[in-house]
Structure formats: structure tokens, C-alpha cells
Design goal:
mainly alpha; two-stranded antiparallel ribbon; 2 strands
Length: 155
């Protein structure tokens, strides 16, 4: 079983239980000989809309009517970008539950539409937070082993 199939089984939006011959979105039996993954086009599109970045991004923009979702923001209508509520931290944009349009109960996923200024503001804050965490980890590691720091400075 592939990693993608495992994710489809554990997805909170999908009802698929992993049974072969069943739709990987609604778990209905697939009766068509030409279909292997989904029982119908609407099931396939529903999965794509919540798991594949280009479809999820388009759906999020349509949901927000192409406006920034921040209150009192008056950015131009088409000047919008889609942001993952939970930072991807360089994890890429491959298929997965991180593209759910709304956050799951466990916090995965959730997309919001923002103007470029708000998106830059959030992304910058996330980058600063990651840098502070890296700095704290580096400082903790050097404090835990002061002998290496003394040896390095005396060389």
C-alpha cells in the first residue's frame, strides 16, 4: 500500500476504509470496469479539491471570492494569495491532508486567502519564529557541552 493510500485511509474527510474495489472518497463499491480509485467524477474532484495544491488553491480563492479574508482589508480583488494556516516549513506542496480547505479537528490543513501584504507579514513572522527556535536549540546544545566550545575557541 502506498503512502498516499495510507493517507487516504486516515483522512478525516474521506470515509474509505482501505477495501479494494471501493471508492477512496465515499467508500461506495466501484461498479464500473473503467474506474479504480473513485466511483464517480464528483468523488474524484472532492478529493482533489482538498488534497492537491492547485485544486485546493483555486477552491480557497473561489470560497473567499478572491478577496483577502482579513477584516477591514481593502486590497484589490485579484491581489490575493493562499496561505496554509499551519506553516509548511519547507515540506513542499505534494498531495496530502495539509491542503484541506478547513482545518481538521487535529489541526491539520486549513487554507486562508490573504492579500500579498498580509501573506508576507504572516510568512515573515513564521520565519522569525523558526529562526528563534533554531537559535534556542543551538544555544542549548552549546550550553550542554561547554567543553567543545572552550576547545573550539582555544584553537
Amino acid at each position: 500500500m502506498s503512502a498516499l493510500e495510507r493517507e487516504r485511509i486516515t483522512c478525516s474527510l474521506s470515509t474509505w476504509t482501505g477495501e479494494p474495489g471501493c471508492c477512496q472518497w465515499c467508500n461506495a463499491e466501484i461498479t464500473s470496469a473503467r474506474r479504480r480509485t473513485w466511483c464517480s467524477d464528483p468523488c474524484g474532484r472532492a478529493w482533489q479539491r482538498n488534497h492537491i495544491w492547485r485544486f485546493a488553491r483555486s477552491a480557497a480563492k473561489r470560497r473567499a471570492k478572491y478577496f483577502c479574508e482579513r477584516p477591514s482589508c481593502d486590497a484589490a480583488r485579484r491581489d490575493c494569495e493562499v496561505n496554509h494556516r499551519a506553516a509548511r516549513n519547507g515540506a513542499g506542496y505534494g498531495p496530502g491532508c495539509h491542503h484541506h480547505l478547513s482545518p481538521d479537528s487535529d489541526g491539520r490543513g486549513g487554507l486562508e486567502v490573504l492579500c500579498r501584504a498580509h501573506h508576507r507579514e504572516i510568512t515573515t513572522a513564521q520565519a522569525k519564529e523558526r529562526a528563534a527556535l533554531r537559535r534556542a536549540a543551538r544555544d542549548a546544545a552549546s550550553a550542554a557541552d561547554p567543553g567543545d566550545a572552550a576547545t573550539d575557541s582555544s584553537s
